[in-house]
Amino acid sequence: MTPPVEIDPRIEALVTDLIGRVADKWTMLILEALADQGTLRFSRLREAVGNISQKMLTQTLRAMERDGLVNRTVYPVVPPKVEYALTDLGVTLGAAFCGVWIWASENLLEVERARTAFDKRD
C-alpha cells in the first residue's frame, strides 16, 4: 500500500502530528489503559499508567482530548468528579498501533541479537 503521489498538505500535517503524539509513550500508555479498563477517573488512570506525574497526565490528556482521542466528562458534584474514556477515534488509533505489538512479538529475538552484536562491537 503506497500513499498517493499528490498528498493533501493537511493530511501530511495530520500524519506528522499523530506520529509525534503516538510516539509519545504516555499517549500510548493512556490509550492502552483506557482500552483495557474502560472509563476511568483521573486518579485511577494515573495509577493504571504508572510512573507519570500529575502535570504530564493532565497535559497528555488535554492533547488527546483536543485530537478527539478521549472524552472528558465533568460531573457537577462536590468534590469534582472527572472521567476519561476513549472515543471511537481513540479506539481505532489504538487498534492501528496493535501492529507494533505484533511486529515486536514476531521480531523480538532478532532485535535482541542485533542489539547484543552492536553492544559487543566496542
Could you explain the architecture of this structure?
The model has no long low-confidence stretch (mean pLDDT 87). The longest helix is centred in the last third of the chain and has 23 residues, at 98-120. The protein is globular. A three-stranded antiparallel beta sheet has the order 1-3-2. A hairpin with a 5-residue loop joins strand 2 (70-75) and strand 3. It has helices at residues 9-23, 25-37, 42-49, 54-66, 88-96, 98-120; strands spanning 40-41, 70-75, 81-86. The protein is mainly alpha-helical. It is 66% helix and 11% strand. The chain has six helices and three strands, in the order ααβααββαα.
| Cα Rg | 18 Å
Number of helices: 6
- Uncertain spans: none
What's the N-to-C terminus distance? Answer: 39 Å
Strand content: 5-15%
What is the mean predicted local confidence, pLDDT? Answer: 87
Shape call: globular
Percent of residues in helices = 55-70%
What is the β-strand count?
3
Q: Biggest sheet, strands in spatial order? A: 1-3-2
Question: Structural class, from secondary structure content?
Answer: mainly alpha
Q: Could you give a short account of the major beta sheet?
A: 3 strands, antiparallel
User: In sequence order, what are the helices and strands, one letter per element?
Assistant: HHEHHEEHH
Oligomer: single chain
